[in-house]
Amino acid sequence: MSDSTHEFIAQTMKALSFHTRVKMMEFMCNSKKKEFTLREIANGVNMRYDSIIRHVKQLEVAGFLQNYLKKHSTFNEPFSFYEITEYGFILFDAIVQGYNKYFGG
């Protein structure tokens, strides 16, 4: 593997090295919604809004989440939304399936 591949894998593993980030991915993957505000993510994992910002950013840097601006349905101004990337969903699902297969989770 190349150094860039090693770095990519390390960033991916680092992104899931906190249980908070794993809980966030689980919440978002299992939700019927596709896009989330930071507040919705915080509420979904029972954490304070200001506590999850760095975790969301780490997941975004590793490619699990993407961020975009869109008009909020309640407010007529742009809001920042997050959604799981296809890569993020496939990789997280593979990790969960592997855990369940080997550890009977």
What does this 3D model show about the protein?
The protein is of the alpha+beta class and 105 residues long. It has one domain (3-103): Orthogonal Bundle (Arc Repressor Mutant, subunit A). It is 60% helix and 13% strand. It contains five helices and two strands. It has helices at residues 3-15, 19-30, 38-44, 49-61, 86-103, and strands at residues 65-71, 78-84. A two-stranded antiparallel ribbon has the order 1-2. Strand 1 (65-71) and strand 2 form a beta hairpin. Helix 1 (3-15) packs antiparallel against helix 4 (49-61). The longest helix has 18 residues, at 86-103. It is globular. The chain starts with a helix and ends with a helix. 18% of the residues are buried. The mean pLDDT is 91.
